[in-house]
Amino acid sequence: MTHIHVLLKKEEIEPDKLKGEAVIVLDVLLATSTIALALSYGAKAVIPVLNDIDAHRLSAQYHPDEFVLVGEKEGRVIDGFLPPNPSLLKSYVKDKIVILATTNGTVALNRSIGAEIIYPACLRNGEAVTRDVVSHLKPGQKIIIVCSGSSNQFCLEDFYGAGYLISCLRDQLRGPFTINDAGLAAEVLFHSNAGAYDLLIQSAVGEFILSHGFEEDVREVVELGVDHVVPIYQNKQITKKGAVRSGTNKA
Amino acid sequence: MTHIHVLLKKEEIEPDKLKGEAVIVLDVLLATSTIALALSYGAKAVIPVLNDIDAHRLSAQYHPDEFVLVGEKEGRVIDGFLPPNPSLLKSYVKDKIVILATTNGTVALNRSIGAEIIYPACLRNGEAVTRDVVSHLKPGQKIIIVCSGSSNQFCLEDFYGAGYLISCLRDQLRGPFTINDAGLAAEVLFHSNAGAYDLLIQSAVGEFILSHGFEEDVREVVELGVDHVVPIYQNKQITKKGAVRSGTNKA
C-alpha cells in the first residue's frame, strides 16, 4: 500500500526517513515555481544551493558566460544576484546554468538529498510531476511531499500545493493508498471554494510579494497544471526529466 | 490590532512567547474534550499533569474519595487509571477532582503556563470560550491557539478545531485583526463542505478511537458550540470560569 506523507516545513525533514522514498519538494512562492519557469525559459539547469557563499564557490567552476546567480535571503535579493522572481528572469536564463540560493526551497531540496528520487514541484507542473512519480513508483515506496515553509513557519501556499498534488495523486494512483493527517487537511483545503490566487495573496509571503509590486509573478505561479516539463534533481542539478542531454539521445 | 496565531503542535510552543498573551489549547481527541465533558458531568476540577508519575505524586495530597485518576500514554490507558473517553467517565467524576494525564493535551496545557490566561477548549465549547477570550482581551494582547497535535505530529482534528475557533473569533472581534498562515488555512478547512464527523474519523487518532469501538465519543466531541461552560486553567487546576466556589458567591 502506498503511503502519501506531507511534511509541513523543511525543518520536519529527517534525512534518514527519506532513504528509498520518492520526494516532491514545494516552495510555491517562489523557489520551485522559479525553477519550473527557469527551465521553461530555456535554462540548461538549475543548481539549488544553500546560500550566497555556496553560490559564489560553485560559480567559480564555470565560465562567466555560462551561469547566472539568482537568489534571496529572508526575502531580500542577495547583493549582485538576480531576484528569483520569474517575471524578471525571463530574459536572463536561456541556455544558462542558474545557480539559485533561497531561504527555504533550495535548502529543502538540499536536505532531501538521500531520497531515491527528488522532484521540485509547484502548482504549474504538479500534474506532470505526480504522473511521473506514479509511473516510476516502486512497490512499498512512500511519496513524501515536503512543504518548504518559510523560516520554520507553516506556509499557506505550500500547503495548498500539497493539497493539489494529493488531488492529482488520487486520480493517478491505481492501488490503495493512505495519507497522513497533514495531507488529508491539505486536500480538503485545495478542494474548498477558495481560489488559488485569492488564497495565496492572503498568505504572509504572498502579501510580501504583492507589496513589492510583483502581482504578475503570483498570477503566473497559480496556474494549475499548465507546465508539462518534469524537473528532476539529481547529480546536484535540476534538469528537465527526459530532456536530450549533450552528446546522447538517452534521457 | 489583535493577532491570532495558530501553533500546529505543542512542540511549537515557545513558553517565552506566551507571556502576557491569551492562550487557547485544543486537543479535540480527546484531552480538552474530556476536560469540558468532565466539568459538565460535575467534576469539581480537572488537574492536567504530564504523566502517570506526576499524577500519583499529586494524588497523595488528596483523600482517596476526593479524586479519580484518568489517563493514557501514547493512546493506551495507564494501568490503574480510568480511560479518558468521555463516555466512560460520566459515572465516575461527579464532585471529584479529576487528575488527568495524557500524551498531548495535558502536556500542552502545562507548557502554556506563563501565558496571561489559558483556556482548554474543544469543539463543544469553542463559541463560549472565544466569547470569553474576546470580552477579556487586553489592548495588544495576542490570541494564541495551540493545537496539541499527537506526539510531534500535526493532527487534523485540532486543525479543524482551530478553524472553528477562528470562525467564532471573526464573528466576535470588533476591531481589525490579523491571522497567521496556519490560522488562515485552518479556517478555510473549517468552512469546507467536509463535515466534522466525517473528517475526524479519517484522522489518525479518529481512526484509532473508532477501531476501539468508541464511536460515541467521537459523535459527542464533534457537537459544535453546545457547551456553554468556559473552562479556565489557573492555579494549576481547570475549573468552570465564573462558577461559584466553596464559601463564596463571587466568581
From TrEMBL, chains A, B:
Its cofactor is Mg(2+). It catalyses: (2R)-O-phospho-3-sulfolactate + H2O = (2R)-3-sulfolactate + phosphate. Its EC number is 3.1.3.71. It holds the Pfam family 2-ph_phosp. One of its GO terms (molecular function) is magnesium ion binding. InterPro entries: ComB-like, ComB-like_sf. It comes from the Bacteria. Coiled coil: none annotated. Keywords: Hydrolase, Magnesium. Belongs to the ComB family. This is Probable 2-phosphosulfolactate phosphatase.
